[in-house]
Amino acid sequence: MSSVEHPLRKYLRPSVEATTFCPGCGDGTILASILRAIDELGMTMDDFVFVSGIGCAAWIISPNFNADVLHTTHGRPIAFATGIKLNLPEKKVMVVSGDGDLTAIGGNHLIHAARRNIDIVVICVNNGIYGMTGGQVAPTTPREARTITTPLGSIENTFDISRMVQASGASYVARWTTYQPRQLIRSIKKAVQKKGFAFIEVVSQCPVQFGAKTGAGNAVQMLEMYRQRSISVKKAAEMSPDEIGDRIVVGEFVDTVKPELCEEVAILKERARGEG
Amino acid sequence: MGHTMESRRLPAGKYFMMGNVACAEGAIAAGCDFSAGYPITPASEITHTLAKRLPEVGGYFLQTEDEIGAICAGIGASWTGKRVLVPTSGPGISLMLENIGFAVGVETPVVLVNIQRGGPTTGAPTMGLQGDMIQPRRGSHGDYEIIALCPSSPQEMFDFMIRAFNLAERYRTPVFVMSDAFIGHMREEVSIPEPGEIDLMYRKIPEEGADLSKIKLFLDEDVAPMPIFGKGFRSHVTSSCHDEHGNRNLIDPTALDNFINRLRNKILKHRDEIVQVESDYDGCEVALVAYGAVARCAKEASYVARSKGMGVGYLRIITAWPFPEREVQELSQRIKRIIVLENNSGQYYPYVKAEAAGRAEVTFLPPEILGQVHDLDYVVQKVEEMLR
What is each CA distance from B20 to A31, B54, B88, B123, B135, in whole angstroms? Predict the structure, then answer.
């Protein structure tokens, strides 16, 4: 009997037989989207170094990707990635981690990496909750949502992550949901090709924690909600904040060209050695 | 007109140099080519020097958004094969500790310098205190071993950087240089050797094309080659408990036992190559035990006491961690009384006391006022009183 190998299997570590994702989790869609983007760009895993923090999304790359993978501490993958990229400027460095990791405990590194405009791709999986630890409120949890640590509903405001990264100086910022994998793949390809800090927020379903705790339902119901609530950046620009309400603004927020840190460092070194 | 690398090296010779500057120059002489840090008194002169000097030798100093970013960027750089220095003071180390544990856990060479200042909290930034001596040993969570060296002079700020880099590379582990504001800001003669006189050790890395499934990449008590990034090794490096190939294992207690004990044994098994002390107590009844800035006074006090006819020797701890058990044991067998001098409220003292228990009497002698270097006359007088 002949067997057919999945076209993306070659990008996965041979020892990997299964993922650790819960049934219905959006991480699988994001894993496949990253690999499809790499495949469509005609790149190999040796062109990349992947870095992640702590949480479910950190396990998208670790151990699955058959590449140099650094699975780090909570909140710090961008800081590790900065040290890697500065010293391996010819490699593409991609961070894949969650919203709690990158915007709560790791928020400082995120805004400063964007400010420096260092050539790193960051895929931020935003499921609006702390999944791995049992469904606690996150900076991205919608107001009034009930979580295990906001049993009476969240009374805090919600981070608009993409806008924050845009304001911090990134070269490329886009947001998609797991309902839009084709657009997501296109954005990942652009982000990889961009010379500068490229950030993609992926709103992703966590049926086991977010769905169950907040009443958002199962994976299909959450994807259906993403379909209904998504509006384009263009459309949102013509609407008031009240009109936008709980809709998810998707699309490209920034796509620009500006000086990149590693290139600036190379120039500085030449100057310091009297060669500039 | 182009400059060569050679002309950018500090020429060999004698300099009148601040300890922190000697530290930076020692790092460069040790082949340091990346550093990351955040401004902090009394360590800033190290980063000031590196910011100017590293680009001249093809390296780079990154000023990060905080000390957590500094240690993480440093570890990331080390995984690309760079020789990395992360200098700071106690408050910075407090912020870095979680990721120092990460460096231990995934076996990353990195040199940390703590120019200790008066604490707790913001404390007294320009005053020296040996207040952080247990921090490198036990500060990060979990069970691990660490290497820490204690320089006593600007010359040793230079020399110990070379030793620290060599130990870090040899054992694939973070190494601390535990200085303080006195030594960091002290200006003394520093002799810079010719580059050919400096022996540098480099980490092992797997041979390119090697079958990595056949060799240990982690958890080898004799130090596994480091599968650095960018070479096609496709390394899986995880902070999670892992096996010798880097595979995560969170369900088997045996895996955790290996993860802890093989990393510990990697240091402990080689303690004879790591631990250094300096001693002179033959025929003495009493020995002063000290390290760092205080060791200068302890040594001098033993000579003064001897000139007054008292049998007072000294043991200077150069490697604070791993703890020099054997050397303290031997000391306690050969003399009757140990006096531990520290510029703190007695941090290293309990370790010495425990090691010498049942063999020698151990007492503690802080300076008259914490934050001052021990006064020579005061120490000699105290020793006289104790021996009366």
Answer: 47, 15, 11, 20, 21
